[in-house]
Amino acid sequence: MRALNHERLVEEFQARFPRSGPIQIVEAPGRVNLLGEHTDYNAGFVFPMAIDAGIQLAGALNGTAQVNLYSLDYAAQESFLLKEIVPSKENSWANYVKGVFREFQKLGREPQGVDLVITGSVPQGAGLSSSAALEVGTALLLTALHNWQLETRDLVKLAQRAENDFVGVACGIMDQFASLMGRESHALFLDCRSLEYAAVPLPLAERGYAVAVLNSGVRRGLASSQYNIRRRQCEEAVQLLQEKLPGITSLRDVGPEHLAVVNQLPEPLKRRARHVVTENARVLQGVAALQAGDLEEFGRLVSASHASLRDDFEVSCRELDILVELALEVPGVLGSRMTGAGFGGCTIALVPRSSLPTFEEQIRIEYQRRTGLPAEIFTFRPAPGARLIAAARPRS
Ligand code: GLA
Questions:
Q1: Does the N-terminal or the C-terminal CB of the chain have fewer CB atoms within 10 Å?
Q2: Measured in angstroms, how far is the CA atom of residue 256 from the centroid of ligand 1?
């Protein structure tokens, strides 16, 4: 999938919504998470990077009380009145946008009628956060169109609430955060409790490595029900652990030094909690390894994260395990793991650039042979977060 150039996007907008007024354009990236999976809703640490693919939006105020959305990728239109924002059954993509309008209204802002054209350059439903990008992109576009002043962190939280409360997915904060705050050539080390973060340089390209992203082609069917079950299990684990570790309020407060206590929990809570505790530690170690220039150690932690997600948290699936296994068979690959919620979607692998052709060929052939599915392989660069492109004025 390729992004459109801005002129094309404006032309597409004009074709649907002819006008002469200024049009705002926003680009919001997807993300891959390098380390720290299923830790965000446990108030823990994550380490994602925004990628150079995502969602593009072109929009303008239309002077009415109605919002008109057009998705170029689905060739579908959805319109709604601002006084009556309810979820759409047939155009589920529109709900991410509607949710953002609704959240602004709940804050007491009064969004006006808008015409909006949307397109994406990131595969949807593959765990690369196209939905978070759409939420973040919409939020940024609306602030620009209305000249609202909002703190970036408040925008991140608003986008997350749109997903939690309107779309009905109980996600954490990582994806929206990465899409808004991404930095070129950096990953983001985020403390999901305080929302303090640091952009950490990723010296992969200089050292001859690429982040390959492998789409298993398995749609994350089980994802939302199993995701909610995992969240509940983590909360139950906290309740039980509080008997022995008074004062803890989330698994974030449980360190590797408490693993003996964790191991006394009943199954499966013991393994769920163990994953979160060790995963938080891996993020801290991984960031330290990168800062020390130790890419091999970073890669080892990435692969250890996969083992923990597969065996302890049980959110992997056969196809993701096969992709990881195949990646690690290619000489020089530093590490590999599933990324995102799991149950399908994508894996990442840290691959020497010089091995990329072999890597791609070998994995395509073997993955197809073992699963009957085609593997889609991308290489993404760490990219800047969502941004407003200078307002465009259509040619008359
Ligand atoms: C999804 C959610 C995130 C996070 C990951 C798992 O991507 O949207 O908030 O919980 O799963 O790490």
A1: C
A2: 22
Minimum-distance ligand 1 atom for the alpha carbon of 36: 12
389 burial type by CB count under 10 A (0-12 exposed, 13-18 middle, 19+ buried): middle
Which residue owns the Cα nearest ligand 1 atom 2? Answer: 171
The minimum-distance atom of ligand 1 relative to the CA of 172 is: 9
Sequence-separated (6 or more) residues with CB below 8 Å from residue 139: 100, 104, 155, 158, 159, 162
254: CA distance to ligand 1 center in Å? 20
pLDDT of the residue at 2: 63
CA distance linking residue 33 with residue 366, whole number of Å: 25
How does the average pLDDT of the chain come out, rounded?
A: 95
Annotated catalytic residue within 115, 175, 253, 312: 175
Distance 303 CA to ligand 1 centre (A): 18
For residue 3, the model assigns a pLDDT of 76
Q: Residue 159: CB within 6 Å of ligand 1?
A: no
Task: Verify whether ligand 1 is closer than 6 Å to residue 172 (CB atom).
Answer: yes
CA distances from 376 to 171, 217, 260, 337 (A): 25, 7, 41, 16
Task: Compute the Cα dihedral for 148, 149, 152, 155 and give only its sign.
Answer: negative
Domain spans in the chain, listed from the N-terminal domain onward: 6-199+383-392
Q: State in Å: Cα 227 to ligand 1 middle.
A: 9
Q: What does the pLDDT read at residue 390? A: 72
Q: What does each C-alpha distance from 258 to 239, 242, 272 come to in angstroms?
A: 15, 12, 14
Residue 175 annotated to the active site:
yes
Contact 195, 42 (CB under 8 A): no
222 pLDDT above the threshold of 70:
no
Query: How far apart are the two ends of the chain, measured CA to CA in Å?
Result: 30
Range 6-199+383-392 classified under CATH 3.30.230.10 = yes
Tell me how far CA of residue 191 lies from CA of 2, 112, 294, in angstroms: 33, 35, 22
Atom of ligand 1 nearest to the CA of 37: 12
Cβ of 52 closer than 6 Å to ligand 1, yes or no, is no
Question: In terms of DSSP H, where are the helices of the chain?
Answer: 6-16, 94-106, 130-146, 152-161, 174-181, 223-244, 259-262, 269-291, 295-311, 318-329, 356-371
